Amino acid sequence: MGPRVLGSLDIIVRPRVTPSWRHRFTRSFPLAPHTTFDQLLKSVTSRGMMPFYFQQVGFARFGCRDAISQFAAAWSTDGLLLDLLCRENPRTHIYQLLGRRYSWPTVTGAVTTSDEEEEEEGVVRTTRGFSTAQSYIQRGVWPKEYEHVEHPLLEFTSRPDA
Predict the structure, then answer these.
(1) Angle at which helices 37-45 and 64-77 pack, to 10 degrees?
(2) What is the dihedral of CA 143, 138, 152, 73, to 10 degrees?
(3) Which of 27, 78, 126, 142 registers the highest number of CB atoms within 10 A of its CB?
(4) What's the rounded Cα separation, in Å, for the pair 13 and 40?
(5) C-alpha–C-alpha distance, residues 125 and 21, integer Å
(6) Can you tell me the mean pLDDT for 4-9?
(7) What is the Cα–Cα distance from 117 to 146, expressed in whole angstroms?
(8) How many CB atoms lie within 10 A of CB 156?
(9) 146: three-class secondary structure by DSSP
(10) Per DSSP, which regions of the chain are E strands?
C-alpha cells in the first residue's frame, strides 16, 4: 500500500431526512430514541480510534469502509445503533453492504443536447438503478492501542496484522 494520510471526520448536518441525490446508494439504520450527536462522537472517540489514517495509492484513499464498520460496531456496542440490519428491503446487515462497491450504470452511445448538434460518442449516467459488485474492504491504519472489531461478514483484503 501507499503512504499514510491522516483522516478527518467531516459531518454536515442537514435539516432533512431524505437521502442526498449525490449518493449512489443509501440505507438507513435505527438509532436509539433521543440519541444525540455528542453521544455518537463520544462513542467513537472514547475507544482510542483516533488518529485514523487512510492508505493512499495515487489519488485514491483506502480505509473509509473500514472506518464505517468500526463506527457501527462502537455504536451498536453502546446501544446507540439498535439494529445492524438496514430498514429497507431486503434487510441486509451493514457489514454485508460495506463489502459491495456501488456505481451508476452507464450507457455508451450517441449523446446530444439538441437536434441541431452533431452526435458525439459519449457515456451517460442512467437515471434508474445502480450496479453492484463484490469489493473487499481495504483496511485503514488505526492506532496500535485500538482493538479493531473483526466479524465474519467483514471481508478485508488483508489480515489485521499484515
Answers:
(1) 110
(2) 50
(3) 142
(4) 13
(5) 13
(6) 87
(7) 58
(8) 17
(9) coil
(10) 4-6, 53-57, 60-62, 100-103, 106-111, 120-125, 131-134
How is residue 86 written as a grid cell? 438496514
If one counts the domains in the chain, the total is 2
Distance CA 131, CA 144 (A): 37
Structural domain contains residue 45:
yes
The reply to whether 14 falls in a domain is: no
Sign for the pseudo-dihedral over CA of 149, 152, 156, 162: positive
d(CA 151, CA 138): 15
Q: Determine the structural domain holding residue 33 and report its residue range.
A: 1-8+24-99+135-162
Question: What is the C-alpha separation between 154 and 145, in angstroms, rounded?
Answer: 21
Q: Is 25 helix (H, G, I), strand (E, B) or coil?
A: coil
Q: How many residues does the chain have?
A: 162
> Quick check: 158 pLDDT over 80?
no
Residues 71 and 31 in one domain: yes
pLDDT at residue number 107 = 56
pTM attached to this predicted model: 0.77
Residue with cell 455504536: 75
* Residue 3, all three cell numbers: 503512504
